[in-house]
């Protein structure tokens, strides 16, 4: 039951995270923000996560871990709702009527339309400062995410068989890959809807999703993901603090939490334990950071995510501007088209391979690190092939060619 609940929580949190990335373009247009500010808004999730992750991981292992995960899911739901809330405090979206959207559904967006829209931004009024609440809501979602992964993995390690733990974790990582796919598909669906849907007559809107001035219902997906996160957090409130070790259920049930009936806790016991835990926080952190293998692994993960997150955040926007796709179409291609988003299948194979290597072949840690290095380096070499793949820029008078052409 815990594995199923945690899998649903993984899918929910990754769905909300990828939806945020799919809505970055819509948020920038709605609040008239630059790409740098859009990147700051998206990065606020990692900021909130970084501030509390180490503390929650250290202290949470001594507390009721399932309930902390449930609280984290509810906090993520609140943060997601706060992110979409500014829409209801802003006026209706007013787009410029200088450029008439004359494109039909079969014609992609002209780069000239993008360029002309950018020039109009110079005379637009400054956007609303309510984007601050979008940033704060995303940061709050990052804080709520802190107990889900570390406490969930430690809960599995403590009560599952050693030979089953890696299999359960690989299943979690595999199921989690469904979240990005559904997140981008949700972003594609919301991008087709007009931003003020339900507040204005849609037939009176003279622009289409293919128009560069179009802003989709970016706020709607945050409330959908908020409801999903609330549902994901409910099961954890009914799971026990302790479980009997897998395979030893009939031998010893003394670890099962039965509302603390067998071992009542004195009022000052928790404070003493938390005080001792706080004293051991810095020595424990120093010990981990002084371990060469752990430090090298940490640096590798930082470098990997440094490139991956930047690619994932602005990939949809790049497809819009470089290939003339609408926001809805770009998100759809990333989320569903296997040629654009092969990660779920590859991630599934990688997780199963990692479990097989660790549990069946039982390779040593050094051999596992060597295998990881070989696969990562091979992936890097294959990515270099992308540098030779490009499209010629469409001629735009006054921008790429002279007016006399």
UniProtKB/TrEMBL annotation:
Q: List the residue ranges forming a coiled coil, or say none.
A: none
Q: Which GO terms describe its cellular component?
A: basolateral plasma membrane
Q: Where is the Major facilitator superfamily (MFS) profile domain?
A: 1-405
| Pfam families according to UniProt | OATP
The transmembrane residues are 32-56, 68-89, 166-186, 216-239, 293-314, 365-385
Look up keyword Repressor and say if it applies: no
The cross-references to InterPro entries, in alphabetical order and at most eight, read: MFS_dom, MFS_trans_sf, OATP
**Where in the sequence does UniProt note compositional bias of the Basic and acidic residues kind?**
249-262
Q: Where is this region: Disordered?
A: 249-268
Q: Which GO terms describe its biological process?
A: monoatomic ion transport; sodium-independent organic anion transport
* UniProt membrane topology term: Multi-pass membrane protein
Give the family this protein belongs to, as stated in its UniProt record. Belongs to the organo anion transporter (TC 2.A.60) family.
Q: What's the protein name? A: Solute carrier organic anion transporter family member
- Organism annotation: Sinocyclocheilus anshuiensis
Taxonomic classification: Eukaryota, Metazoa, Chordata, Craniata, Vertebrata
